[in-house]
Amino acid sequence: MNPGIQKVEALDAGHFVRVEWEDGSESRYPCVWLRDNCQCPHCFLRSARARRLVFEDLDVNIVVKEVALADRKKVSITWPDEHASEYEAEWLKKRCFSEEARAVMREDLFLPERQYWGSDLQLPKMPFEEVMYNDESAYKWLRTLKKVGIVLLTGAAARQGELVKLGHRIGFLRLTFYGPTWQVQDKADANNVAYTTGKLCFHTDYPVLQHPPGVQLLHCIKQTAAGGESEVVDGFNVSNKLKEQNPQAYQILSSTAVDYTDVGVDYCDFAVQNKQRIIDVDSRGQAVRINYNNATRDTVFDIPAEKVRPFYAALKEFNDLLNSTEHKFTYKLEPGDIVTFDNWRVLHGRQSYPSGSEVTRHLEGAYADWDVVMSRLRLLRKRVLNRD
């Protein structure tokens, strides 16, 4: 994109700068924002891509003294204190304040597109080795993970340690009280319901943390012959359904703070306590994170007694939707499979399997934060698509 500028002028007594582009469109830039984002070496450290200007030195009522156009590719501004700033046309065009331009920038930075699914899910699959050593494949993996919420990687070695390699491919794994990685298998005196052979109801992991892990990785090392099937459901899809059929239930689950607890010993001893809303929403009321784990939901419930039954009724309706055949997808991991999924969106469960004298089912698990995953996704996107 090499936009050209047709005309530039000050507006509103110098509080705005209007840019008329060669394509006929126009942009209006607040002068306080322009001064705050001066790109000169005094105000901006280019090597760190970080602002050097101290906010105390910014006049929020600043106006331009002079504004000029240089060879249709640059806007030059002189400020009342004679400080000079220059802004490249392409830089300005990307940061236009119009709704259309801001939507383009949101898409470019955060890739918000979602593909909802139910029992009709076509589980995306990719070879583990390709993801590890091919940037295009790694980009496709993370892009699909962001869009669909789940991707199955196949062909990893059926031994511990493969998730550590995958973590290095992303950047690094998230350390929790259960360790850098953790072993899902039947254990005596289990300190987590996952470490039993029983059925696991649909849940997201670790809502007891203030910032639950964004991405979960589960590597199948050994699989039981009978039972042990995995189940997943698109929590955002189900939340939308709940909002449509019972707005009041949606409002209750998106506004009620639920107590979660987790106490025990693993990587170290821990006593974690937190409050989460079952459905976290953004300013538009859209679900951005599901925080639901019935096993670690506390007996303590810090709400007025008269609000308890309506909450349970709302949660029951949500839970029934999660478990409907229309919404859930069932599959069985094979040794060497690694399922990667969005722990803020996709609820997962497991069917029970027979217990025995030996370990018949063994998964290794790990977490990564969305900040780390999105960082790698942006870097891969730039490399693969040759984006600036």
From TrEMBL:
It is an enzyme of class 1 (oxidoreductase). Pathway: Amine and polyamine biosynthesis; carnitine biosynthesis. This is gamma-butyrobetaine dioxygenase. Keywords: Carnitine biosynthesis, Dioxygenase, Iron, Metal-binding, Oxidoreductase. Pfam families: GBBH-like_N (PF06155), TauD (PF02668). InterPro entries: AlphaKG_dependent_hydroxylases, GBBH-like, GBBH-like_N, GBBH-like_N_sf, TauD-like_sf, TauD/TfdA-like. Residues 13-92 form the Gamma-butyrobetaine hydroxylase-like N-terminal domain. GO terms for biological process: carnitine biosynthetic process. It comes from the Eukaryota. Its EC number is 1.14.11.1. GO terms for cellular component: mitochondrion. Catalyzes the formation of L-carnitine from gamma-butyrobetaine. Its cofactor is L-ascorbate; Fe(2+). One of its GO terms (molecular function) is iron ion binding. NCBIfam families: carnitine_bodg. Belongs to the gamma-BBH/TMLD family. Residues 118-367 form the TauD/TfdA-like domain. It catalyses: 4-(trimethylamino)butanoate + 2-oxoglutarate + O2 = carnitine + succinate + CO2.
